[in-house]
Write a sequence for this structure.
Protein backbone atom coordinates (compact mmCIF):
# COMPACT_ATOMS: atom_id res chain seq x y z
CA UNK A 1 0.00 0.00 0.00
CA UNK A 2 1.36 3.42 -0.99
CA UNK A 3 1.96 5.96 1.78
CA UNK A 4 0.07 9.26 1.24
CA UNK A 5 2.42 12.04 0.04
CA UNK A 6 1.78 14.20 3.11
CA UNK A 7 2.72 11.39 5.51
CA UNK A 8 5.73 10.45 3.37
CA UNK A 9 7.05 14.03 3.61
CA UNK A 10 6.35 14.34 7.33
CA UNK A 11 7.53 11.26 9.25
CA UNK A 12 6.83 12.98 12.59
CA UNK A 13 3.15 13.28 11.68
CA UNK A 14 3.09 9.63 10.70
CA UNK A 15 4.62 8.69 14.05
CA UNK A 16 2.02 10.75 15.94
CA UNK A 17 -0.80 9.08 14.01
CA UNK A 18 0.56 5.67 14.94
CA UNK A 19 0.77 6.69 18.59
CA UNK A 20 -2.67 8.29 18.66
CA UNK A 21 -4.74 5.17 19.58
CA UNK A 22 -2.44 4.31 22.49
CA UNK A 23 -2.33 7.95 23.61
CA UNK A 24 -6.13 8.22 23.59
CA UNK A 25 -6.39 4.97 25.56
CA UNK A 26 -3.91 6.22 28.19
CA UNK A 27 -5.66 9.57 28.52
CA UNK A 28 -9.12 8.02 28.92
CA UNK A 29 -8.26 5.14 31.22
CA UNK A 30 -5.17 6.36 33.09
CA UNK A 31 -4.72 10.13 33.08
CA UNK A 32 -8.42 11.01 33.44
CA UNK A 33 -9.12 8.63 36.39
CA UNK A 34 -5.91 9.77 38.07
CA UNK A 35 -6.93 13.41 37.66
CA UNK A 36 -10.36 12.65 39.16
CA UNK A 37 -8.74 11.03 42.20
CA UNK A 38 -6.40 13.99 42.66
CA UNK A 39 -9.27 16.50 42.46
CA UNK A 40 -11.60 14.51 44.75
CA UNK A 41 -8.94 14.52 47.46
CA UNK A 42 -9.48 18.26 47.92
CA UNK A 43 -13.29 18.14 48.07
CA UNK A 44 -15.80 17.52 50.87
CA UNK A 45 -17.89 14.40 51.37
CA UNK A 46 -21.58 14.69 50.61
CA UNK A 47 -24.20 13.91 53.24
CA UNK A 48 -25.17 10.65 51.56
CA UNK A 49 -21.90 10.00 49.80
CA UNK A 50 -20.44 11.49 46.67
CA UNK A 51 -18.66 14.83 46.79
CA UNK A 52 -19.44 18.47 47.49
CA UNK A 53 -17.44 20.91 45.41
CA UNK A 54 -15.94 22.83 48.32
CA UNK A 55 -12.16 23.04 48.53
CA UNK A 56 -10.66 21.62 51.75
CA UNK A 57 -7.43 20.15 53.13
CA UNK A 58 -9.22 18.22 55.86
CA UNK A 59 -8.94 14.91 54.02
CA UNK A 60 -5.15 15.09 54.04
CA UNK A 61 -5.10 16.24 57.66
CA UNK A 62 -7.13 13.15 58.66
CA UNK A 63 -4.36 10.90 57.33
CA UNK A 64 -2.23 11.94 60.30
CA UNK A 65 -4.82 10.72 62.80
CA UNK A 66 -3.36 7.95 64.92
CA UNK A 67 -5.56 5.21 63.44
CA UNK A 68 -4.81 5.93 59.80
CA UNK A 69 -1.18 6.93 60.26
CA UNK A 70 -0.35 3.78 62.23
CA UNK A 71 -2.09 1.67 59.60
CA UNK A 72 -0.02 3.36 56.91
CA UNK A 73 3.20 2.71 58.82
CA UNK A 74 2.23 -0.94 59.35
CA UNK A 75 1.48 -1.28 55.64
CA UNK A 76 4.92 0.13 54.86
CA UNK A 77 6.52 -2.31 57.29
CA UNK A 78 4.64 -5.28 55.82
CA UNK A 79 5.56 -4.28 52.26
CA UNK A 80 9.24 -3.88 53.18
CA UNK A 81 9.28 -7.18 55.08
CA UNK A 82 7.61 -8.94 52.15
CA UNK A 83 10.15 -7.49 49.72
CA UNK A 84 13.12 -8.48 51.89
CA UNK A 85 11.86 -12.04 52.44
CA UNK A 86 11.12 -12.45 48.73
CA UNK A 87 14.66 -11.25 47.97
CA UNK A 88 16.24 -13.63 50.49
CA UNK A 89 14.24 -16.54 49.09
CA UNK A 90 14.17 -15.51 45.45
CA UNK A 91 17.84 -14.72 44.83
CA UNK A 92 19.19 -18.21 45.70
CA UNK A 93 16.34 -19.80 43.75
CA UNK A 94 16.98 -17.60 40.72
CA UNK A 95 20.72 -18.31 40.89
CA UNK A 96 20.09 -22.04 41.14
CA UNK A 97 17.81 -22.00 38.09
CA UNK A 98 20.17 -19.77 36.08
CA UNK A 99 23.13 -22.10 36.66
CA UNK A 100 21.33 -25.29 35.53
CA UNK A 101 21.56 -26.65 31.96
CA UNK A 102 19.21 -24.86 29.60
CA UNK A 103 16.74 -27.74 29.27
CA UNK A 104 16.43 -28.04 33.04
CA UNK A 105 16.01 -24.26 33.37
CA UNK A 106 12.83 -24.34 31.33
CA UNK A 107 11.48 -27.20 33.43
CA UNK A 108 12.28 -25.40 36.69
CA UNK A 109 10.73 -22.15 35.47
CA UNK A 110 7.60 -24.01 34.44
CA UNK A 111 7.44 -25.69 37.86
CA UNK A 112 7.78 -22.23 39.46
CA UNK A 113 4.95 -20.74 37.42
CA UNK A 114 2.39 -23.57 37.31
CA UNK A 115 0.97 -22.96 40.83
CA UNK A 116 0.50 -19.28 39.98
CA UNK A 117 -1.73 -20.01 37.03
CA UNK A 118 -4.48 -20.60 39.57
CA UNK A 119 -6.62 -17.61 40.54
CA UNK A 120 -4.96 -15.46 43.23
CA UNK A 121 -8.12 -15.40 45.36
CA UNK A 122 -8.38 -19.21 45.37
CA UNK A 123 -4.73 -19.53 46.40
CA UNK A 124 -5.25 -17.04 49.23
CA UNK A 125 -8.26 -18.98 50.52
CA UNK A 126 -6.12 -22.12 50.40
CA UNK A 127 -3.78 -20.50 52.93
CA UNK A 128 -6.83 -19.74 55.06
CA UNK A 129 -7.52 -23.47 55.41
CA UNK A 130 -3.88 -24.05 56.33
CA UNK A 131 -3.38 -21.26 58.88
CA UNK A 132 -6.78 -21.04 60.61
CA UNK A 133 -6.39 -21.13 64.39
CA UNK A 134 -8.75 -23.96 65.43
CA UNK A 135 -9.45 -25.80 62.20
CA UNK A 136 -6.33 -25.02 60.16
CA UNK A 137 -4.30 -27.90 58.77
CA UNK A 138 -1.11 -26.96 60.67
CA UNK A 139 -2.71 -26.58 64.10
CA UNK A 140 -4.93 -29.63 63.71
CA UNK A 141 -1.96 -31.78 62.66
CA UNK A 142 0.35 -30.56 65.43
CA UNK A 143 -2.36 -30.91 68.06
CA UNK A 144 -3.28 -34.44 66.98
CA UNK A 145 0.39 -35.46 67.13
CA UNK A 146 0.71 -34.06 70.64
CA UNK A 147 3.40 -31.58 69.62
CA UNK A 148 1.44 -28.56 70.90
CA UNK A 149 -1.31 -28.15 73.48
CA UNK A 150 -2.66 -24.78 72.34
CA UNK A 151 -3.19 -23.68 68.73
CA UNK A 152 -0.45 -21.50 67.31
CA UNK A 153 -1.47 -17.90 66.41
CA UNK A 154 -0.92 -18.31 62.67
CA UNK A 155 -4.03 -16.49 61.45
CA UNK A 156 -5.38 -12.96 61.77
CA UNK A 157 -2.04 -11.19 62.22
CA UNK A 158 0.85 -9.64 60.31
CA UNK A 159 2.60 -13.01 60.04
CA UNK A 160 -0.27 -14.49 58.02
CA UNK A 161 -0.43 -11.42 55.76
CA UNK A 162 3.31 -11.41 55.07
CA UNK A 163 3.25 -15.16 54.40
CA UNK A 164 0.39 -14.76 51.91
CA UNK A 165 2.08 -11.82 50.18
CA UNK A 166 5.43 -13.63 49.93
CA UNK A 167 3.69 -16.64 48.41
CA UNK A 168 1.78 -14.44 45.99
CA UNK A 169 4.65 -12.25 44.75
CA UNK A 170 7.72 -14.49 45.00
CA UNK A 171 7.78 -15.27 41.23
CA UNK A 172 7.83 -11.53 40.53
CA UNK A 173 11.13 -11.42 42.41
CA UNK A 174 12.60 -14.60 40.96
CA UNK A 175 11.98 -13.94 37.26
CA UNK A 176 13.74 -10.53 36.92
CA UNK A 177 16.72 -11.76 38.96
CA UNK A 178 16.86 -14.92 36.85
CA UNK A 179 16.83 -12.82 33.68
CA UNK A 180 19.76 -10.76 34.99
CA UNK A 181 21.75 -13.79 36.14
CA UNK A 182 21.17 -15.67 32.91
CA UNK A 183 22.90 -12.86 30.99
CA UNK A 184 25.82 -12.82 33.43
CA UNK A 185 29.16 -13.46 31.72
CA UNK A 186 30.43 -16.68 33.29
CA UNK A 187 34.01 -15.81 32.34
CA UNK A 188 33.96 -13.09 35.01
CA UNK A 189 33.24 -15.68 37.71
CA UNK A 190 35.97 -17.92 36.29
CA UNK A 191 38.38 -14.98 36.36
CA UNK A 192 37.55 -14.36 40.02
CA UNK A 193 38.24 -18.03 40.76
CA UNK A 194 41.54 -17.83 38.89
CA UNK A 195 42.51 -14.87 41.06
CA UNK A 196 41.71 -16.96 44.18
CA UNK A 197 38.81 -14.75 45.24
CA UNK A 198 36.75 -16.43 48.00
CA UNK A 199 33.11 -17.20 47.15
CA UNK A 200 31.82 -14.36 49.37
CA UNK A 201 34.01 -11.80 47.59
CA UNK A 202 33.05 -13.18 44.18
CA UNK A 203 29.43 -12.71 45.08
CA UNK A 204 29.95 -9.21 46.49
CA UNK A 205 32.21 -7.88 43.72
CA UNK A 206 30.93 -9.74 40.65
CA UNK A 207 27.58 -11.49 40.96
CA UNK A 208 25.68 -8.95 43.08
CA UNK A 209 26.55 -5.79 41.06
CA UNK A 210 25.72 -7.49 37.77
CA UNK A 211 22.43 -8.86 39.11
CA UNK A 212 21.38 -5.53 40.63
CA UNK A 213 19.11 -4.53 37.70
CA UNK A 214 17.05 -7.68 38.28
CA UNK A 215 17.05 -7.13 42.05
CA UNK A 216 15.77 -3.57 41.63
CA UNK A 217 13.09 -4.61 39.15
CA UNK A 218 11.97 -7.54 41.28
CA UNK A 219 11.88 -5.44 44.45
CA UNK A 220 9.68 -2.85 42.81
CA UNK A 221 7.38 -5.53 41.41
CA UNK A 222 6.96 -6.92 44.94
CA UNK A 223 6.98 -3.73 47.05
CA UNK A 224 4.40 -1.72 45.10
CA UNK A 225 1.56 -4.32 45.00
CA UNK A 226 2.36 -5.38 48.59
CA UNK A 227 1.95 -1.82 49.86
CA UNK A 228 -1.44 -1.49 48.17
CA UNK A 229 -2.65 -5.03 48.90
CA UNK A 230 -6.20 -5.45 50.24
CA UNK A 231 -7.31 -8.97 49.26
CA UNK A 232 -4.64 -10.80 51.28
CA UNK A 233 -5.08 -8.66 54.45
CA UNK A 234 -8.86 -8.96 54.19
CA UNK A 235 -8.72 -12.78 54.09
CA UNK A 236 -5.63 -13.73 56.10
CA UNK A 237 -5.81 -10.75 58.43
CA UNK A 238 -9.22 -11.91 59.62
CA UNK A 239 -10.46 -8.33 59.90
CA UNK A 240 -8.00 -7.74 62.76
CA UNK A 241 -4.92 -6.62 60.85
CA UNK A 242 -5.76 -4.18 58.08
CA UNK A 243 -3.54 -2.36 55.62
CA UNK A 244 -4.00 0.98 53.92
CA UNK A 245 -5.48 -0.76 50.87
CA UNK A 246 -8.32 -2.08 53.02
CA UNK A 247 -9.02 1.38 54.42
CA UNK A 248 -9.13 2.87 50.92
CA UNK A 249 -11.48 0.13 49.77
CA UNK A 250 -13.74 0.69 52.78
CA UNK A 251 -13.86 4.44 52.18
CA UNK A 252 -15.10 3.97 48.62
CA UNK A 253 -17.37 0.95 49.07
CA UNK A 254 -18.63 1.06 52.67
CA UNK A 255 -18.24 4.57 54.11
CA UNK A 256 -18.85 6.27 50.72
CA UNK A 257 -16.25 8.86 51.67
CA UNK A 258 -14.73 9.31 48.25
CA UNK A 259 -12.70 12.44 49.06
CA UNK A 260 -10.89 10.81 51.97
CA UNK A 261 -10.33 7.62 49.99
CA UNK A 262 -8.92 9.72 47.14
CA UNK A 263 -6.59 11.54 49.54
CA UNK A 264 -5.30 8.25 50.93
CA UNK A 265 -4.81 6.92 47.40
CA UNK A 266 -2.88 10.03 46.39
CA UNK A 267 -0.56 9.85 49.38
CA UNK A 268 0.08 6.17 48.77
CA UNK A 269 0.91 6.82 45.12
CA UNK A 270 3.34 9.57 46.13
CA UNK A 271 5.05 7.28 48.64
CA UNK A 272 5.37 4.55 46.00
CA UNK A 273 6.80 7.04 43.51
CA UNK A 274 9.33 8.39 46.00
CA UNK A 275 10.35 4.88 47.06
CA UNK A 276 10.85 3.91 43.42
CA UNK A 277 12.97 6.99 42.68
CA UNK A 278 15.13 6.53 45.78
CA UNK A 279 15.61 2.84 45.06
CA UNK A 280 16.61 3.40 41.44
CA UNK A 281 18.99 6.23 42.29
CA UNK A 282 20.62 4.15 45.02
CA UNK A 283 20.98 1.23 42.63
CA UNK A 284 22.33 3.61 40.01
CA UNK A 285 25.14 4.73 42.32
CA UNK A 286 25.99 1.19 43.42
CA UNK A 287 25.53 -0.78 40.23
CA UNK A 288 25.52 1.64 37.34
CA UNK A 289 21.83 1.37 36.55
CA UNK A 290 20.44 4.27 34.59
CA UNK A 291 16.97 5.62 34.92
Amino acid sequence: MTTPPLLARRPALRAWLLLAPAAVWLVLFFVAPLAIVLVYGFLERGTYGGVVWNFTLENYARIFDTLYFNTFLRSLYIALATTLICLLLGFPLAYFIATRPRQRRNTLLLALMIPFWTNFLIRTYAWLTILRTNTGLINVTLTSLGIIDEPLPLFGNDFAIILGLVYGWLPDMVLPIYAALERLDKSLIEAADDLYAPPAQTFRRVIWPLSLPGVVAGSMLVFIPSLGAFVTPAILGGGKSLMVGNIISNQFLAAHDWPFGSALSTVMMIVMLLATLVYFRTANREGGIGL
Observations:
- DSSP finds 13 helices and two strands in the chain.
- The chain has one domain: 65-287.
- The CA atoms of residues 2 and 76 lie 56 Å apart.
- The chain has a mean pLDDT of 87.
